[in-house]
Amino acid sequence: MEMIIDGFKDGEFIPRRNTCDGPGLSPEISWRGIPAGAKSLALLMDDPDAPRGLFTHWIIWNIPVSAFRLPAGTARKAELPNGIMQGVNSGGAYGYYPSCPPPGPVHHYRYRLMALDAVPVLNPGAGREQFDRAVSGHVLAEVLVTGLYGR
Asked: PANTHER family annotated for this entry (predicted)?
């Protein structure tokens, strides 16, 4: 399975347009090589370097396996077309929370795309804990891309 994030590759710096120092839009993300048996896709973005511990920037699930991308600037609402759902990020809002570290060392923003053998049963607006429980034991394959950003 492969994930392509527009504007950067694994280990590279995230473009300003996807951060709080720019318009803060979610990047376009595309993928290929979804394994047979996958029933849905999910995406999780987090920052393990956040001052207060793990900060979840984006939770999105129920992505149909027939889809091949998420567009740039995905709407920040609980329910999207085609049954796609978004959770509440650590900032308390739906959808994508842009990279916005405090001044200091560079942070590592992990984008994790998962192919699931089920469609998670979650209400729109679920948080990280509920999401992690719902996908536990259902990940057929996953790919991780880490973007860097510092201020």
From this structure: PEBP (PHOSPHATIDYLETHANOLAMINE-BINDING PROTEIN) FAMILY PROTEIN, UNCHARACTERIZED PROTEIN YBCL-RELATED
pLDDT digits (tens, 9 = 90+) for 126-138: 999 999 999 999 9
CA distance 98 to 47: 11
Nearest to 14, CA basis, from 23, 30, 29, 27: 27
Q: What is the pLDDT of residues 89-109, one digit of tens each?
A: 999 999 999 999 999 999 999
Superfamily of domain 2-26+45-149: PEBP-like (3.90.280.10)
SS in 3 state form for the chain? Answer: CEEEECCECCCCECCHHHECCCCCCCCCEEEECCCCCCCEEEEEEEECCCCCCCEEEEEEEEECCCCCEECCCCCCCCECHHHCEECECCCCCECCCCECCCCCCCEEEEEEEEEECCCCCCCCCCCHHHHHHHHCCCEEEEEEEEEEECC
d(CA 37, CA 50): 35
